[in-house]
Amino acid sequence: MANIKKILCAVDFSEHSPMVADYAKTMAKALDASVICLYVAPSLSQYVGFHVPPSSIENFVGEIVSGADTTMSAFLAENFAGVSVEGRVVTGYAAEEVLNLAEEHGVDCIVMGTHGRRGIDRILFGSVAEKVVKSAKCPVLTIRPKLGPAA
């Protein structure tokens, strides 16, 4: 039988993140597991060559991370009551950071949302969830957002 004691819940603070957190919380309660809730802020390092001083980018990313830390604290309080949870905010490429943290902390399962991109958006941007599913060394539970009636 699977022994799931550490769950990584990757969120983007979108309106769908509470639903993703609910799945992680439900699993954690049922399995007596702990949760690491992760938000990955974009590094923006790819813009350094575009006549934008690196210090401006670093300051902007610093403000994003600072704001994300505050948002994470509130998010944990609202969505993970009664569960052992630790919040993490890191900077980088989302799929890479999710996979790195999962491996570093020996997580037993990753819970994350999908955005259900289709067509050209999927070709241009790819899917963070798809990259994680293909490369993770542990099971990945993907949660598709509830779409409106036109979906």
Describe the model.
- This protein is an alpha/beta fold.
- Helix content is 44%, strand content 20%.
- The chain has helices at 17-31, 54-79, 94-104, 119-125, 128-135, and strands at 6-11, 34-41, 85-91, 109-113, 140-143.
- It has a five-stranded parallel sheet, with helices on both faces.
- Helix 3 packs parallel to helix 5.
- The longest helix is centred in the middle third of the chain and has 26 residues, at 54-79.
Terminus-to-terminus distance: 37 Å
Helix content: 40-55%
Strand content: 15-25%
Radius of gyration, in angstroms, nearest whole number: 16 Å
Low-confidence stretches: none
* Spatial strand arrangement across the major sheet: 3-2-1-4-5
Global shape: globular
Largest sheet: 5 strands, parallel
Mean pLDDT, as a whole number?
84
One letter per element, helices H and strands E, the order comes to EHEHEHEHHE
Strand segment count: 5
Number of helices: 5
> Which class do the helix and strand fractions yield?
alpha/beta
Question: What attributes does this structure have?
Answer:
151 residues; alpha/beta; 5-stranded parallel beta sheet; 5 helices; globular
Quick description:
The protein is α/β, with parallel strands linked by helices.
